[in-house]
Amino acid sequence: MSAPPLIILTGAGVSAESGLATFRGADGLWEGHRVEDVATPEAFARDPATVHRFYNARRARLRDPAVRPNAAHLALARLCAAWPSPALLVTQNVDDLHDRVMQGSEALLHMHGSLRRARCLRCGAARDWDEDLSTDTPCPACGAAGGMRPDIVWFGEMPMGMDRIEAALAECGLFLSIGTSGLVYPAAGFVAAVQGEARTVELNLEPSAGTRLFDEAHHGPATEVVPRFVE
Ligand code: BJW
């Protein structure tokens, strides 16, 4: 029998053991703010300097040599490369740890955007971006002053690649959800969208909010449960 089309959904837990904080864990607050208070278009309109500082700090963290892909990122890259049917790794993470081991693979989709990209508020042009952003940063494409924002999907905004994700969900035969709390939609609804013939598996430190929706669940640190499941 041939392998079924595969979808892997990842969240912050897959990068936790690489030294990147999750959103809703014990260390999930940033300078006393909840992510829901800084990751919205309204927060950016009200106080862009604070929102820029939040993303500048996280972008800088990616440059720390200690922050690098872990055994879970590596196992998932190997799985996608070797999978004999269509495979799509949808990450909610805006870090670049999957990218570093997937070498430009089209199988990787960042549904909540990327820390290392910025977008112009006026003309919409998006480009790779590794520097700090500020309220003065001009747009390289159209020259708008202070026109750049992180190329990130905030609450109330449409996640990226939804057409491709929905088409893949309709064909999916194996769905893996890894390191995500299952609290943020539409990602939290993907498991319900594939149910039927598809096999659904949760790999997470602890039961997620949607754990009962999965056919099976394996709980523990991603660097242990993911390689064990994949190999
Ligand atoms: C480990 C581990 C280890 C730890 N090993 N595991 C009411 C009901 C339903 C929906 C809504 C509602 N009100 C509003 C909405 C919609 C809203 C939403 O879902 N809100 C909820 C708060 C209720 N969603 C939106 O607005 C989205 N857009 C939208 O819906 O558009 C309309 C639409 C779309 C499609 C079709 C039709 C209409 C946009 C959501 C944008 C989310 N943005 C953020 C921030 C931006 C990115 C960034 O700054 O990084 O994305 S929020 C934040 O949460 C971030 C994450 O990607 C996202 C998910 O978090 P994640 O990854 O699950 O992290 P945690 O911390 O929550 O969990 C980590 C897990 O790992 C835990 O379970 C740990 O146990 C585990 N773990 N260590 C393995 N070592």
Label this structure with key terms.
Sirtuin_class_III, six-stranded parallel sheet, metal-binding, binds ligand BJW, alpha/beta, histone deacetylase activity, NAD-dependent, three-stranded antiparallel sheet, NAD+ binding, SIR2/SIRT2 'Small Domain', protein-succinyllysine desuccinylase activity, globular, 9 helices
Topology (SSEs and partners):
Layout: E1 6-10, H1 13-16, H2 35-38, H3 41-46, H4 48-62, H5 71-82, E2 87-91, H6 97-102, E3 108-110, E4 113-120, E5 126-128, E6 148-152, H7 162-171, E7 174-178, H8 190-194, E8 199-204, E9 216-219, H9 222-230
Helix pairs in contact: 5-9
Task: Give an overview in words.
The protein is of the alpha/beta class and about 230 residues long. It has 2 domains: about 1-20 and about 70-110 and about 160-230, 3-Layer(aba) Sandwich (Rossmann fold); about 20-65 and about 115-150, SIR2/SIRT2 'Small Domain', CATH 3.30.1600. Helix content is about 30%, strand content about 20%. It is built from 9 helices and 9 strands. It has a 6-stranded parallel sheet with strand order 3-2-1-7-8-9, with helices on both faces. Strands 5-4-6 form a 3-stranded antiparallel sheet. Helix 5 packs parallel to helix 9. The structure holds ligand BJW. The site of ligand BJW has 37 residues, from helix 1. Pfam families: SIR2 (PF02146). Its cofactor is Zn(2+). NAD-dependent lysine deacetylase and desuccinylase that specifically removes acetyl and succinyl groups on target proteins. Modulates the activities of several proteins which are inactive in their acylated form. Belongs to the sirtuin family. Class III subfamily. InterPro entries: DHS-like_NAD/FAD-binding_dom (IPR029035), NAD-dep_sirtuin_deacylases (IPR050134), Sirtuin (IPR003000), Sirtuin_cat_small_dom_sf (IPR026591), Sirtuin_class_III (IPR027546), Ssirtuin_cat_dom (IPR026590).
